[in-house]
Amino acid sequence: MYDYFNGKLVFKAPTHVVLDVGGIGYHIHISLTTYSQIKDQEQCKLYISFQVREDSQTLYGFATEGERQLFNHLISVSGIGPNTGRMMLSSITPEEIQRAIINGQVQIIQKIKGIGPKSAQRVILELQDKLKKQGPDALIPLPLAKQSVPEEALTALVMLGFGKPQAEKVLNSLAASDPEQTVEQLIKAALKRL
Questions:
Q1: What number of H helices and E strands is found in the chain?
Q2: Quick one: which of 78, 88, 106, 136 is 20 to 30 A from 146 by CA?
Q3: What is the C-alpha separation between 138 and 118, in angstroms, rounded?
Q4: How would you classify the pairing of strands 24-30 and 56-62?
């Protein structure tokens, strides 16, 4: 529903902020990782995960798109709610969580408050393949510079759920055979091969 809010930070705490966007103050829960990235800013952009439960509607904000994506992966695991997901992202960095999941390091996930051995194993079991498909640089923010046609096509294919290495290989061979293709043509041709 919401992608991001960009506004003035009226209040900052390690657990939440109040962001004034167009005269409306939004109470947004944040992780310590996000807090450390925005604590010196007056104005900021937070990527939002809007969670609706039977008794509440809560906004969770993240300084980077990658952190939000990891949060959404974490809360998709049975038994991991938004508060536990936020606790995980506050305990260790998103990169450390991703590395631990990909490498199957149960003991690192288990050290996080509120995560027992069974929950840690479930997180790894359910997310390991998803995170491996996205590649090791999935948490690195996408560059704001104009992407080349093959890069733009690759981004689209990864968002559609294809593994980055496999999609990259197919796109490289397609771009080599006809470098004048548009993004749409490249994607359509790649979809036939994937």
A1: 9, 5
A2: 136
A3: 26
A4: parallel
Strand partners, 50: 59
Residue the block writes with tokens 């952009």: 45
Q: Are 28 and 20 in contact (CB under 8 A)?
A: no
Report the candidate in 7, 129, 125, 142 with the shortest Cα–Cα distance to residue 68.
Answer: 142
Per-residue confidence of the chain (194 residues) as pLDDT tens digits?
A: 789 999 999 999 999 999 999 999 999 999 999 999 998 899 999 999 999 989 999 999 999 999 999 999 999 998 899 999 999 999 988 889 988 998 899 999 988 888 888 999 999 999 988 888 776 666 655 444 456 788 888 888 887 788 888 888 888 888 888 878 888 888 888 888 88
Q: What are 12's strand-pairing partners?
A: 17
Q: Give 14's DSSP letter.
A: S
Q: What angle do CA 107, 113, 116 make, to 5 degrees?
A: 50
Q: Give 104-112's long-range contacts (Cβ < 8 A, gap of 24+).
A: 104/128, 112/87, 112/88
User: Three-state DSSP class for 59?
Assistant: strand
pTM for the model stands at 0.69
Q: Which amino acid is at 103?
A: N
Distance between alpha carbon 83 and the CA centroid of its chain, in Å?
Answer: 16
Q: Can you read off the two tokens belonging to residue 3?
A: 């992608």
- At 81, is the secondary structure helix, strand, or coil? coil
Written as one string, the DSSP assignment of 73-113 is HHHTSTT--HHHHHHHHHHS-HHHHHHHHHTT-HHHHHTST
